[in-house]
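## retry 2 of 3
previous attempt timed out at serialization; input unchanged, resubmitting
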Amino acid sequence: MTAPSTFGLSTEARNLHWLLSNLVEEVPGVHSVTVVSSDGLMLLSSDPGHHTAAEPEVPRSGPRGSSADLATIVSGIGSLTVGAAKLMDGGGVKQTMVAMEEGSVFVMSISDGSLLGVHAAPDCDMGVIAYHMALFVGRAGHVLTPELRSELRKSMESAQ
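## retry succeeded, writing output
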């Protein structure tokens, strides 16, 4: 996984980067992960289309190979499901899952209105992915302050 450098970031920001990396590397079937703010801006992401010189090039596993594409998809799904829940008086949306022939997309709400999105293989264990997403949300939700979101946005902008 290639992520923005964590050099110079706060301890909280480095911890979130570590949690995201761990989710991608340790959970079978996960291709890519992103965290999107409530206003649709990408705060954290794994970048499945990149590799280092020491790693062999592998086929892209994310949507169009771009973390920005996954962030856009997650933001759109989140917005659509929140609107649907309001129309149906369903309360807050906790998790959304889209199963496709060639993969799955999971979106889970984080306490501050941000969203965690995961793109996974079609044969993934959905329960395992949902469990690890819930762990991430539980660990990340209380630290995503406005200050940390601003820091993460700036780190994403400087990485591009």
